[in-house]
Specification:
The complex is a heterotrimer of chains A (384), B (594) and C (310). By secondary structure, chain A is mostly helical. Helix content of chain A is 73%, strand content 2%. In chain A, a hairpin with a 4-residue loop joins β1 (83-86) and β2 (91-94). The longest helix of chain A has 36 residues, at 109-144. By secondary structure, chain B is α+β, with helices and mostly antiparallel strands. Chain B is 29% helix and 18% strand. Chain B has 20 helices and 21 strands. Chain C is built from 15 helices and 10 strands. In chain C, α3 (62-73) crosses α4, α3 runs parallel beside α6 (110-122) and α4 (78-91) packs across α6 (110-122). The longest helix of chain C has 18 residues, at 140-157. Chain C is elongated. Classes of the chains: A mainly alpha (384), B alpha+beta (594), C alpha+beta (310). Chains in contact: A-B, A-C. Chains A and B meet through α2, α3, α6, α7 and α11 of A and α1, α8 and α16 of B.
Chain lengths: 384, 594, 310
Amino acid sequence: MIAFVIRRLLTTIFLLIVVSMITFGIFFLIPRLAGQNSAELAAQYVGRNPTMSAILQMEAKLGLNDPLVVQYWRFLKGIVVGAHYDSGPSQTFCAPPCFGYSFRTQQPVWPQMMAALPVTISLAAGAALIWLTTGVSIGVLSALKRGTVVDRFSMAIALAGVSLPIFFTGLLSLELFSYKWPLFPNDQYVAITANPLLWARNLVLPWITLAFLYAALYARLTRASMLETMSEDYIRTARAKGLPERTVIARHGLRPALTPILTIFGMDLGLLLGGAILTETTFSLPGLGQFTVLAIQNQDFPEIMGVVMLAAFFIVIANLVVDILYAVVDPRVRISLWPCWRSATCTCSSGPTTAWSRPWTGSRSTWSEAARSASSVSPAPARA
Amino acid sequence: MTSRRTLAITACALTAGLALAACSSSSTSSSPGGSSSSAGTGASAGNASFNAGVTGVVNPSTKKGGTLTFANSSTPDSFDGGNEYYAWTLNFNRLYQTPLTTYKSCPGACANTLVPGIATALGTVSSNGLVWTYHIKQGLKYEDGSPVTAQDVKYAVERTYDRGVLANGPSYFQVLLADPKYPGPYKDKTGDLTSVTTPDNYTIQFHLTAPFPDFNYVVAFPQTAPVPKAKDTGSNYQLHPMSTGPYMFSSVQLNKQATLVPNPNWTQNEDTEARQLPSKIVIDLNVNAEDIDNRLLAGDIQVDSQGAGVQAAARAKLLSTPSLQKNTDAAPGNRLWFVYINSKVAPLNNVNCRQAVEYAANKTDLQTAYGGPYAGGAIGSTLLLPGMGGFTPFDLYNAKSQPTGDLTKAKAALTACGHASGFTTGAAYRSDRPKEVAGATALQAALGRVGITLQLHGYPAGSYYTNFAGAPNYVHQHNLGIDFGGWAPDWPDGYGMLDALVNGNAITPTGNANVGELNDSTVNSLFTKATTPSYTVAQQSAIFGQIDRAAMAQAVILPEVYAKVLLYRPPTLTNVYSYSPWGMYNYAVLGVSG
Amino acid sequence: MTSLAIMGLHQQGKSTDITGQIRLDDEDLVSATPERVRRLRGNKMAMIFQDPLTSLHPYYTVGAQISEAYRVHNKVSKQAALKRAVDMLGRVGIPQPAVRVDDYPHQFSGGMRQRAMIAMALSCDPELLIADEPTTALDVTVQAQILDLIVDLQGEFGSAVIIITHDLGVVAEVADEILVMYAGREAEGGGGEEVFGHPRHPYTWGLLSSMPRLDVARVDRLRPIPGTPPSLINVPPGCPFHPRCAYVAEVGGDRCRTEVPRLLESGPGHKEACHLTLAKKQEIWERLSPRTAAEAEPEVEQGATEVEAS
């Protein structure tokens, strides 16, 4: 298992490097192909009506006239070792991981992202809790009561949830519940450490807006998964054993039905941690999503790079966690990853593929031997 | 399914409602219900009514206390006075920093007048016009009690030379003073800016390379607000600039929020034009633009600090609801919206073709595209804004008398330039500015009436001036004879308005604002003449009036509207009035009641 | 031993309503409450299915599933149930049952899984075991072992067994009584040797003729039954087999097409549903398999034993 995790982490690093190269390329190469030179790029970060000298000074400060490879190397080095930055009267040191300094505000990017992250986590975690509980229960209920009014009604609401864009539901909920009836005034975000009640109150509308979309999705997914699971053979066996229907659904049906939901949830959460752009913008939440939008609008390369890498990192880690979780939940996957998990016939020195086949060939050879040596009537040797 | 249908109907209704609200500006603004241009200040003092804040002070009060909350849909370019250029940040800066000179705090054109800031009086200039002398008031203190000296002002100017650290502010010092190559105090630790001298602790002198009568305006920028060298942290100074204004920062959360509290070491003497009324000032950043209007109307915030007016949805609501309209001002926006007509792209290199464009444009449609008479502005025919020195309401192309266009004259002009059946050229505009999008379509339709075909090209606003319209090479290569733009002057006089737009010497390869590329020797020499040291303000203004006429005769700019912004002032706001230097409310004097 | 009789069970047109009775130990199940039927499932009547890999829950260990089956109907502790599971696994011939009890179904081979299913089914000592195609998913050697197991356990536990299968070899191996069904109806029923030796229904003739035999010269061609089985929603009128039957003419008239033949006893313990007369049936069978006369019943058994040993 450790080997598996280590291998995946190495792949993660490789993937992040590729992502950084692509982002770097998009930001710098494409305008260059369109004919823009580095001075014109630097001019975007200077005020109105700049003199040529100002543009060139900025260009030199940001290192934009260096070859792309040098700039990329500088960026990579910063992440691993940190970087020094000329802040005027002195040099400041930016500790690793250093994603550089914002082109626009000349402030370090990493602390800004770390300040924005709790907001996004608050938003994502709260919404996730809501959508998991409501979406999954509605989905299960719909599946069990398939074809009834409950089912049709839930799926209609789910259709609305999936189809209505967040900026619509968000603005609508703001209009109704913030301004028309001031139940949840849309104030600035308050950290949970400062005032938990206010923190929660200001997040209720964003939570519900975000959760509405995902709950709808999950209700439909859970319903489909549940329906599929309940038509499996082992459900028939469970009923044949005389189990009460309640137990059949809860113990035999839910677990396999929810396994794909769990993995999708991991992916969704990973994506969301990279920034719920629409929700944060609509509700003015200073999270990673809003940070991303502003970085792109301002063409602020270090911020763009930082947020892309962070988002990619979350997604890859989410992938990893999901894979591990899948192995924890589904024994079939577990054995292929961790072959010595409670297996009597496995000696742990072998790799996954051989161990996967070992219990099979072992038993098969035993049986065929027994069959060969069997006498005409009694199958007793086979039983031994 | 009933629920699905109900939801769909609600959705349609809401979308329709929003759409209606968005495009109703001209139709609903037909009867404002109040005086649109009231004469005199008596009509408005103390009483809120429509446009009361344009000419008078609404809710005058000396009451202290309360929290004044600003909100902005983006962020300032900086809180550091040496690194600011946005109009609203310059306005906001008055709360915590004070330059050598500043503008008088009064409504209307009165505020175009300069008054001393930390200086004792406006600067005096030597007879050859090259040396400007200012005396600093004595006994001024920073927020921590340390004294303000002239050396601090010199240092403040010096640090703006390091454009790698402070990139955003204006470049006037580098252009006007004698050592433009000075790298700044961070890189040059032993030398200094020799063209700025401090004969004693309270005197500062600026040595120019050529006469520049508007220098008092130059030092009105917060680049001259004193900065103590010991406390300067370069690019981090924006996190806590040392205050010489009525307020000081208690916290700055970059991109989120900043809070200011009264500066205990401030005296009224330090800045006669600012006030210290609220007990706390908060500015929320990166708030959703639509939401700002909602919060403003609900009274959760008091000011939309961007000062560019409310969004389309709120606009309709304000103009059609009497109870809201009385808290609304269609304030002069200190800006001209216009269209450049490039004089190098054929066939517009012929002045007659350019004049054809001037005649053929439908100014009323353009006005509607920019938001109508209240939120867009009044149809313009000059480059100078009303109220500026030298402004005369001449109208060379019948923009006011025939606002839908003078097609007869247009066709005659086309014939004169040899394209009687019209011609084709490219038109550039900023695709993320709805006004310009609408304007471009309107202009295309209007010019099409005389056979001038426009090929529209949208560009992102952020790089419009650096890479596209403001890069002459690009304009030539892509035949962008028509380019949408706007201009808010750095200071409210002819120089601030006209120099960058029509001075041939102001053309730059990138970030160019003279997109018309007018390089007319008459105009250029008039600019030089305006710097004659012996001229009075009236004489200078007359010259700028001539430049205005000459440039318009060359038809390198098609004026659209003298911008207006539709501002809302919540009833709890006191001392509110429209402030002409920046075209929004004066932030340095506001208070909160109730 | 208690016997299960399925009588008159058939589908009415498109619906799947059951008319008639299903009696277990003199108790009718069709009219019993669902709760009562649930209590009987796993307890007095148990079932094993065709594909043990999909029929066992992949997420729970074999031991857990067997224990669960036991604990539903018996109030015992978890340890006791687990002990029972180990015990059952041992009795169905799984080696090291105490260790294997903690394995997951996919860690077992096909034959072992089927044994585990059987263990689970028999854990509550049911009076009836229904086996739906128990050997279809297994290879031939394992098939034989499973069948032997079923027969042995039947003796050991004293349960009645219903095996549903299409494999005549399996039928021949284990069946005391045979019920041939076609299109959801009984076609022929009777003792194993009787039905194999003296089949009296055209469908049964078809089945037997299409089966390859080791003890016959390879001159004869296999004779498959022409046509395809009907959709159960659209059963042909009259005798359901008549579209594929070669002997409709010999019945005479339109009888096969219009009249549903009833299951009638033609001999002691031998019933079939066909309009042909007994004499006709015997004559046709004589015609169809000249080999029949040459076979003695003991030979059939011997052939089966040989198959098993190899």
